[in-house]
Write a structure and sequence with these properties.
Elements (H helix, E strand, L loop, with lengths): L1 H20 L5 H14 L3 H4 L17 E2 L14 E2 L10 H10 L19 H13 L5
Antiparallel strand pairs: 1-2
Helix pairs in contact: 2-5, 4-5
Length: about 140
């Protein structure tokens, strides 16, 4: 009886630990996020480096990149580097979702150009987060 009680108790504790970590997002949500990132919002254009031939460096997909274009007129707030998105290191899911939903960062300010102010639905923003979290940074 002791072994079975210990086994059941261990299974309950293990289940509680796993439940506390949260379940992985559904594959359909990750796929939707990938579609939005790569085909709609075109995040890869700025956030992925290119090789000497101008092709995306797939080994550093969404790992951030120096921007190789400038505005035609001086803009003091222009960003010259697109930060890494793969894995969303340093961001909480809610922060990213809020940013993509409102176009405003945690300080209530828009991102620096050329980053557009997206106003995605919360569901689409959550899908983007799911996809970006699924990627592992390569740096």
């Amino acid at each position: 009886m002791r072994r079975s009680t210990a086994f059941v108790l261990g299974a309950v504790v293990a289940g509680a630990i796993v439940a506390g970590l949260g379940a992985a997002p559904p594959a359909s949500q990750v796929a939707r996020g990938k579609y939005l990132v790569e085909q709609v919002a075109m995040c890869v254009d700025c956030h992925s480096p290119r090789n000497e031939k101008g092709q995306f460096d797939r080994a550093h997909w969404l790992d951030g990149s120096k921007l190789d274009f400038q505005p035609s007129h001086p803009m003091p707030v222009w960003a010259d580097y697109a930060p890494p998105l793969a894995g969303l290191s340093g961001w909480k899911d809610g922060q990213v979702t809020q940013f993509l939903h409102t176009g405003l960062n945690q300080a209530g300010k828009p991102a620096r150009p050329p980053m557009p102010a997206y106003t995605m639905t919360r569901e689409d923003a959550a899908a983007v987060v799911a996809y970006l979290r699924s990627l592992k940074p390569h740096k």
